[in-house]
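Weekly puzzle thread! Below is a chain. First person to post its structure in token form gets bragging rights.
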Amino acid sequence: MKLALNGGAAVIPPGLIKKWPPVDETDEKMVLDSLRGKNHAFGPNCVAFQEEFAAWNGNRFAVFTNSGTAALHMGLCACGVGAGDHVITTAYSWSSSATCILHHNAIPIFVDIDFDTINIDIDKIEAAITPRTKAIVAVHLHGLALNMEKLLAIAKKHKLKVIEDACQSHGAQFKGRKVGQFGNCAAFSFNQNKSLCAGEGGMFVTDDEDIYRKALQLWSFGETRTPTESRDYHAYALGWMYRGSDLVAAFGRAQLAKLTRNLEAEMTNAAVLNRRLGNLKGLITPTAPQGHTHTYYNYTSRIDMKALGWSEDPKLMRDAIIKALQAEGTMVGMWQSFILPHMTVFQARNAYGNGCPWSCNGAGDGVVYDVNGYPAAVRHCETHFGMTVPLRAPNGPDVAEKVADAFEKVFGNVGQLDPHAIAAAAKEAR
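Winning reply:
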């Protein structure tokens, strides 16, 4: 069968895969009602969104923010992390999982991932703990929760705070409990790509009132009173402006009402792909260990180069397969192409100028960001690709079946690909 990349017919017809997120009359009404209201800043929809999200996720407190990154920074501050402290995080994630640490003048300490789950390798955390370590940013990546039982045991032993980065894992569970219920606090994102989309925005959650109060202070200019209270507009501590707006909250509330069934659609569609693709030669499909409920925010696969008989640069073959799958209409892509320690801000060790925070009072002594120290993360970076939209509502199992057909076609005809020629053509097109 001739691949579409080489002139054959594409498996998936144009228009079959519907865009994300689905917007209906409920979304339109709530946003228009907000627009016609009196408060377009931190208004009534923001307050209601906080209450509704806290109830949905099972938390005592929730604070609506302008991004998941802001919520992460709030967590670092509220947990008492300060200048020169060390904070452990994963070597592979979105940059905010580490830059949130820099935002509070602390230093990220990276730990390699477990290749199977793509999450931080919990068994390697203790070796990374230093006398300066104060916390762990525990990232639940791509819709898969960490083993929080193991992680919390380490945190308790070493008296470390735990900030859950649940920005990609709304509704993911470990042993029947949703992420965001385990650590001292947690952050969620409502960016365009997230399973709960408000365009942008985020939520900080916690069950600890003291942490909640400290997070609020950072969230709103360092003040001690929120916009819903009588404010004196006095800054009592270092603060930012991390509040969300009423229009965004209105959209978020409308989408939250549909979140549970949207997550069910993601998992149903992923089950089709797992059934169809699990034994496909050369393809490594997502893992869901026992006790974990995977929501498949991103259906992230890796390529087994050895199984395909490819011994050259793995990125060449990976990129060629992505091009072939895209030509078949699958909407796959590559998410994060660098491991975090490889990013310039960490290699240059110069976030604030003059080498700060690493140069401040010896805080960076002994901290090394050697890319070779994270082999599983590097291997993942060189072999992975993923997709989101085809698994999302309103797309159903019929779309997932067609996507599986396209995967089978490409991986069954890998011999038709010339990775070197494809790379050269892509370079020339740029």
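Puzzle host: Confirmed. Bonus trivia for everyone else. The longest strand covers residues 133-139.
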